[in-house]
Amino acid sequence: MSDAATSVSIVTQTCVRPDSADAFARWQGETSTVISGFPGFIEQRLMPPNPPLQVDWVILQRFASLEDAKRWLGSSERQSRIEGATAMLVGRDDVHIVRDEASAARTAPVSAVISTRVKPGMEAEYLKWEQKVAAAQSKAAGLQGYRFEPAVPGVQEDFIAILRFDSETNLRSWLESPQRRQLLDEAAPLTAEFHTRLAQSGFEQWFRDATPEGAPPPAAWKMNMIVLLTLYPVVFLWGLVVGTPILTGVLKLNFPVALFIGNAFSVLLTSYLVPWTANRLSWWLAPPKSGRTLVHLQGTSLLVAAYLIMILLFWKAL
To answer: Is 197 helix (H, G, I), strand (E, B) or coil?
Structure first.
């Protein structure tokens, strides 16, 4: 049986104070180091907020088994890490365990994690209602997948549903549809709490092929450096060759229109250039543990040198 079929993921959604975002990112990086040596740990994915769709931080921690995940949740290491982050957070964390194929919230352009606290004694009725919802949403446009996880006594008191859609528009259409609202009204007598959190992937989708199977995603600063490496020459050359002489010079387009066309072209081309570049820098994005510091320094120096060379070349081209 494959590891994806037996593994589980802990999905944590948390609201961070705006003035603590940088500190929380550093704290999460330190937590990644701690959890990487924990028995059964496979990978961790971090999704920063992306308003207005995703206002929370979403952390996905994948383990080889439910027992491994439960040990991490109850470990002194995790409790110590949580105590260090309390002052950065607003409200309570939503922590859920879902059985993989790998994690539903990780594999789609946009996902909704729905947690429901069911009133005692209403579990059987709620499960019947959930089957009714599943049948209705199976017809929703853009649905890519659906997972439902019952409560785990002593570990997770909520029932969890994860919906995966191909776009924010289709997801919101279903979440706000009259049909779903009617179903939620039917469930009101059965439930004590109900929360819906949205998550959307960012640059990570461009770096999946450059990341070894089971490895955590590259550090955000590395992904940003590669995006800058590809975006800078695209924007400069477009403006030099097309934007200024043709769009604003020959065609006499207004600057906002010409800028929009240039941005659209840049995003399209970057979406191809970033994965290509990331594959060739995979040795730096996901270095082995031995000699990691040296690899970090070598790769960073290489990119900084590339930046400087491009600046000098483009400077002389003007």
So the answer is: strand
Q: Token pair for residue 259?
A: 């800028």
State how far the Cα of 47 lies from the Cα of 50, in Å rounded to an integer: 8
Cα–Cα distance between 118 and 127 in angstroms, integer? 10
Supply 266's token pair. 């840049």
What are residue 288's DSSP bridge partners? none
Backbone angles phi, psi at 203, to 5 degrees: -65, -20
Write down the pTM of the prediction: 0.43
pLDDT digits (tens, 9 = 90+) for 105-163: 444 457 788 888 899 999 889 988 988 888 888 788 887 667 777 776 766 678 888 88
Instruction: Return d(Cα 245, Cα 26) in angstroms, integer.
Output: 45
- Give the domains, in start order, of the chain with CATH numbers: 3-201 (3.30.70.100), 220-317 (no CATH)
**How far is it, in rounded angstroms, from Cα 106 to Cα 124?**
30
The fraction of the chain above a pLDDT of 90, given in percent, is 18
